[in-house]
Amino acid sequence: MIVAVAVVGPINQPLYLSTFTDDESARLSTLVHCSLDAVEEKVAAGMRGVTTDVPDAYLGVLAVEEECKVYGFVTNTRTKLIVVVDDPLIKDDEMRAIFRRMHTAFADAVSNPFYVLGTPLVSPRFDASVRTIATSLGAAA
User: Fold this and answer.
1) Who has greater pLDDT, 87 or 138?
2) Sheet strands side by side (includes 58-65)
3) pTM for the full predicted model
4) Which of 6, 19, 106, 112 would be a feasible disulfide site paired with 82, CB 3.0-4.6 Å?
């Protein structure tokens, strides 16, 4: 089950955070913020050519804390999509599909001519898309 979704800008400014539990929003926000170091390490490793020739935007597991796993995805503009799940049995293929859908929703949101890059995403349509994606994996809306 997805418990939090975050979008973090290229210079690590928070653009969007949605939690799907009642009592853990501060802890989940901190967990997302702490996982940004792992994102930077994985991106830097990819830039040094440590990975394959074709860069993969999906970063996999960034952090594990108690019952939660943090997964990451980086767009070509260095915007980070972060998802926190509490399902230990979720497969990488499922997470890749979730991030593809989230990236599509994000691209649609920032393609709005009235959106200013680097500002918080307050689009109701983007929020609805994220909630739909999250509930498809069993999050409580």
Assistant:
1) 87
2) 14-19, 2-8, 80-85, 68-74, 58-65
3) 0.87
4) 6
Say which residue the tokens 């418990």 belong to: 3
Question: Can you tell me the distance from the alpha carbon of 71 to that of 85, in angstroms, rounded to the nearest whole number?
Answer: 8
Torsion of CA 36, 75, 19, 71, to 10 degrees: -60
Neighbours of 121 (CB within 10 A): 20
Spell out the residues 6+ positions from residue 113 whose beta carbon is closer than 8 angstroms to its own: none
pLDDT at residue 141 is higher than 60: no
What is the DSSP code string of 114-130? TPPTTS----HHHHHHH
Region of residue 49 (phi > 0: left; psi between -120 and 50: alpha; otherwise: beta):
left
pLDDT tens digits for range 1-22: 899 999 999 999 999 999 988 7
Q: Which helix (H) or strand (E) holds 59?
A: strand 58-65
- 110 pLDDT more than 80: yes
